Automatic annotation (TrEMBL):
Residues 18-128 form the Acyl-CoA dehydrogenase/oxidase N-terminal domain. GO terms for molecular function: flavin adenine dinucleotide binding; glutaryl-CoA dehydrogenase activity. Residues 244-384 form the Acyl-CoA dehydrogenase/oxidase C-terminal domain. Belongs to the acyl-CoA dehydrogenase family. Keywords: FAD, Flavoprotein, Oxidoreductase. GO terms for biological process: fatty acid beta-oxidation. Residues 132-225 form the Acyl-CoA oxidase/dehydrogenase middle domain. This is Glutaryl-CoA dehydrogenase. Gene3D superfamilies: Acyl-CoA dehydrogenase/oxidase, N-terminal domain (1.10.540.10), Butyryl-CoA Dehydrogenase, subunit A, domain 2 (2.40.110.10), Butyryl-CoA Dehydrogenase, subunit A, domain 3 (1.20.140.10). It comes from Pseudonocardia alni. PANTHER family: ACYL-COA DEHYDROGENASE, ACYL-COENZYME A OXIDASE. It comes from the Bacteria. Its EC number is 1.3.8.6.
Amino acid sequence: MTAPLPADLFGYVDLLPPEEQQILSRVRSFAEEQIAPIADAYWDRAEFPHELIPGFAELDVVGLAREWPDRPAYSRLLTSFVSMELSRVDPSMATFFGVHAGLALTSIDLCGSPEQKDRWLPAMRRMERIGAFALSEPHGGSDVAGGLETTARREGDEWVLDGAKRWIGNGTFADLVIVWARDVADDSVKGFVVEKDMPGFTATKMEGKLALRTVQNADLTFDGVRVPEANRLPGAQSFADTNRVLRVTRGGVAWNAVGAMAGVFELARDYAVERVQFGQPIASFQLVQDHLVSILGAVVASLGMAVRVAQMQDDGTFRDEQAALAKRQATLMLRDAVARAREVFGGNGILLENKVGRFFNDAEALYSYEGTKEINTLVVGRAVTGIGAFVGRRPAKH
């Protein structure tokens, strides 16, 4: 059985059956024993700990929600708790895992042919081939659905890709990159699997990041990259198909936020109990307890929403606006939670050795990626009113 986390006051982890709790316990041990001791150093250097990948692979937690010949499908609730456990220790490593096991693997699983699934998914499950997901562009973030500039044109049995992508997690070392491009023939959005050694494909690490520094975000360029028809995902024929992938993964960002909040709660609580000022632990001061309980309330409230999203994914009743609201609210509360935790530490909170500053910075990335607050607000607003408030309009091209 998985021991309850201090921040899981209502015992949501007990919703998992014993077998899934055992899997989660292995993930927790790996995060605490292997990731935690090196997380600060790699974050500080903005480098990725490739030596952890074999340990990740041994956990066998990639693709938990799909059925494999030698392994049953587990619940979305379990996969979500895995994201939470990783984020509780290091949101950067949770993001790495989410890009590979979430966005990249899900793209092939939802949009790929049976042959493509057989070709790539087993190696991705074993983490022998790492995936990335390339949608955002230098000129397109929130409006990328209507403004995709990367193009694809067919020449015989090949497709020629031209353009650029930005903010691509795992991009510097991924073996397989899921690239979304606009077909010049019919203006539709299609998905392609670009392999890292294809001529004309370049990945350049983005420097100077202040959040999720361990994640290797990259600028990607495609200069006449020739991709065989066998690497085109046949189930990706429009942006609606892209959104099918995002629907599955967006709720996961709420779990990342919950995990980060749980992590800073533990850090702040432990520090408050140990730190003595005015002759007594600062945990004995009412204002400090207010911070701790406010953080705890944010964790529990967000966790309840995130659990329900995962349950609805499992029973097939999940809708876009539910993921949007969970992501919006959890990351809003995360921002407040990390600020309160940093305040409990006082000046010590800005020292990397105390870890809370790392979470403080990482929260800003979680707040923005996979749908900003504003975009998610409009998604939910349209659902509850029946009226779309998206008023931006792309100017005509000349």
